[in-house]
């Protein structure tokens, strides 16, 4: 991952993570626009659960349990046999299905099309959102200046 | 990457299947010696469907699992990793263990609980070649009078386990789609 | 003693019906949506997630709506829901150094890499009620200044490089989890931090304040306070690699505390640490002071009997769901218990009266 919180989507962990963090409605919209949904069978029907988030004491020390977050996971198999895993943040089973389909299709000949139609827009939008917040934060950065002091004259 | 076999054979409707299986496991422990049918798992051999159901129902990433003897094979490892996510560990660190009776012994290797927390003990899933309501005489909590269950031989480690109560391990016996339970509170003979 | 009594079903049904109506309030006023709560009551949502110990803004907003704004009731609802979820696993420890900060301030160093970034803070507001908010109106967009999103280094690392602050020990072995095993004392720091992270903000605020007023003084400076987005990475066992599964907003507070040194340690600064889900700045700050106060033993300091130093006191009482459960149960029927108390007092009075009569007669 580079400094901007981005992860290269060239690799599988990258595209899976991008789908996992994407707004569910947007992910489904982009996957829906790919055309008719390919036939698939569930290996693991989408299941809502939690992931325990860990932190480190002092930011760098021993790990501790901070609290959980909701997540949904599932796995499916396309009729060609390719297996796709869907992991998403939150409780949206339909988004989990879309994420699993993207993961499966990215391992097939459809990869280039899926990359252009789903992953690249998601990546662009995520970056734009990060930039917008960073710009607002930067506007609240304090610029200190020293007043001229009388005795120095 | 795990093979396709490892990815199939899980619960089709996890919430319902695991609730039914949990009920069966709980009833089996509450009424030692009774035999119950369970369904929903199709694990790779040598894991029986009943043992598979118990693993899907009781194990998760917070419950270290020990695969004993011939049960420690890649197909079973991959299946457990995908469907339960339980870390695979040595007997000494296990919360659950599965295997045949020869591979699971000696029982003393497993966590036996502490006087303050007897529940911090292992639960063993013993795959048996036969499961029927005959053989050893069982008495104790959850049994009206007495009952009989085919226990794996030799039976002495089970008698010794019961004698350690309130410490000791609890056991499920599995064969095909059927299971029975032998909690440490059950007296044998 | 507990005795089962039946009755009251109709009254309970009617109470629940009325509760639903009161929750809705005046039907001529538009109903709040969960999305409105999530977007406009963000700090309440964040508090419920932090103390409910579950990051899910939609569920926290729903809980607030259902609880009529009673945040402890909402925390209770979220905790109850959480218990129904299978746990997929634990994340790789989050890297707060890689946080994309909305806010980041230090009270110890004026000039620091990345600068003092105020973020959307109440700090410099005048605390005058803004009657303009009673009228509906468009909010002008926040000012922006072009900047590339990127991490900023931890301030305390500056002291670390000079060896002026105590190093954090790397932990090893399994990470303890309060939600799976009952609390055992003495607790190690990981367990204490988990308990504080899900503890009640008001309780921690009171304790932290008590340390400032002299009950276990720790002389805290805020080395750094930051709020922003971090990525949560999870190992997927069946795939054998980690994915960046989600993003959560965290608040982190590191205090720098005076430390005179001990037999084994040279004089140096020590740390208190607060890390909480959401924009929960007051709580992260309080947590870091209480964390520091609880560390007296490992830093070779004296136990002066202050509440904030007393691990058993703090950890046993910081959870508001536990506390409210036990507190509020006493308003439920205790008819039989009280009946026996009543009998006892009557008998004692009778005996005392009889004794007095006898003495008078003798």
Task: Explain what this protein looks like in three dimensions.
Chain C: Keywords: Lyase. Chain C: GO terms for molecular function: lyase activity. Chain C: Pfam families: PhnI. Chain C: This is Carbon-phosphorus lyase complex subunit PhnI. Chain C: It comes from Rubellimicrobium roseum. The complex is a heterotrimer of chains A (153), B (189) and C (362). Chain A has helices at residues 12-21, 24-32, 93-105, 111-139, and strands spanning 40-56, 63-78, 83-89. Chain A is elongated and about 85 Å long. The model of chain A is unreliable at 1-7 (pLDDT under 50). Helix content of chain A is 40%, strand content 26%. Chain A is built from four helices and three strands. Chain A has one domain (12-138). Chain A is α+β, with helices and mostly antiparallel strands. In chain A, 46% of the residues are buried. Chain B has 189 residues and is α/β, with parallel strands linked by helices. In chain B, α2 packs across α3 (49-58). The longest helix of chain B has 17 residues, at 14-30. Chain B starts with a helix and ends with a strand. With 362 residues, chain C is an alpha+beta fold. Chain C has three domains: 9-82, no CATH class; 96-119 and 149-167 and 181-324, no CATH class; 333-361. Helices cover 39% and strands 15% of the residues of chain C. Chain C has helices at 9-24, 34-40, 42-52, 57-66, 71-82, 156-161, 189-197, 201-212, 281-294, 311-317, 320-328, 335-361, and strands at 54-55, 87-90, 100-105, 220-236, 241-257, 270-277. Chain C has a four-stranded antiparallel beta sheet with strand order 3-4-5-6. The longest helix of chain C has 27 residues, at 335-361. The mean pLDDT of chain C is 92. Chains A and C meet through α1, β1, β2, β3 and α4 of A and β1, β2, β3, α7 and β4 of C.
**CATH architecture call of chain B:** 3-Layer(aba) Sandwich
Radius of gyration of chain B using CA atoms only: 16 Å
Which sequence of SSEs, written as H and E, runs from N to C of chain B? HHEHEHEHEEEHEEE
Number of domains as seen in the coordinates of chain B: 1
CATH hierarchy class name of chain B: Alpha Beta
CATH topology grouping of chain B: Rossmann fold
N-to-C CA distance of chain B? 49 Å
Proportion of beta-strand residues of chain A: 25-35%
Large-scale geometry of chain B: globular
Which class do the helix and strand fractions of chain B yield? alpha/beta
Catalogue the unreliable spans of chain A: 1-7
Quick one: biggest sheet of chain A? 3 strands, antiparallel
At the fourth level of CATH, the homologous superfamily of chain B is: Bacterial phosphonate metabolism protein PhnH
Helix and strand content put the structural class of chain A at alpha+beta
The succession of helices and strands of chain A, N to C, reads HHEEEHH
Widest sheet, order of strands of chain A: 1-2-3
By DSSP, the count of extended strands of chain A is 3
Number of strands of chain B: 9
